[in-house]
Amino acid sequence: MDDDKVFKALADPNRRMLLDRLCERNGQTLGQLCDGIDMKRQSVTQHLGLLEQANLISTVRRGREKLHYINPVPLYEVYERWIRKFEESRLSLLHDLKQELEGKER
Fold first, then answer.
1. Which InterPro entries does the protein's record reference (predicted)?
2. Tens digit of each residue's pLDDT (9 = 90 or more) over 70-93
3. Domain locations in the chain?
4. Which of 22, 42, 73, 83 matches a 20 to 30 Å C-alpha distance to 35?
5. CA Rg, the chain, in Å?
6. H/E/C letters for each residue in the chain?
7. Contacts for 48 with CB less than 8 Å, ≥ 6 apart
């Protein structure tokens, strides 16, 4: 996994919005992704290209249509590498605090 590409892709709010839209309904065409947003088709195409380079989305051709699908694996890898280790120690501290408080109440 190329962490830099993933973080760069996630740094832009427009790309995060496109990922959110794909999360809500996976397998959308460019036209569907452009519906209801204030962004030019060319800009959406560029954002999708960066998301694809970061392996956050994949595409499948169906006839003349190109469907875009979210790929959760790089996000999970970022979670495992960068977030989980911080989450575990915090949860452990909260668990210890809970145990201590419950012990004092008894």
1. ArsR-like_HTH, HTH_ArsR_DNA-bd_dom, WH-like_DNA-bd_sf, WH_DNA-bd_sf
2. 999 999 998 888 878 777 777 788
3. 3-105
4. 73
5. 19
6. CCHHHHHHHHCCHHHHHHHHHHHHCCCECHHHHHCCCCCCHHHHHHHHHHHHHCCCEEEEEECCEEEEEECCHHHHHHHHHHHHHHHHHHHHHHHHHHHHHHHHHC
7. 18, 30, 33, 57, 68
Rounded CA-CA distance 69/88 in Å is 30
Going by pLDDT thresholds of 50, 70 and 90, the confidence category of residue 104 is low
CATH architecture assigned to 3-105: Orthogonal Bundle (1.10)
Write phi, then psi, for 54 (nearest 5 degrees): -85, 0
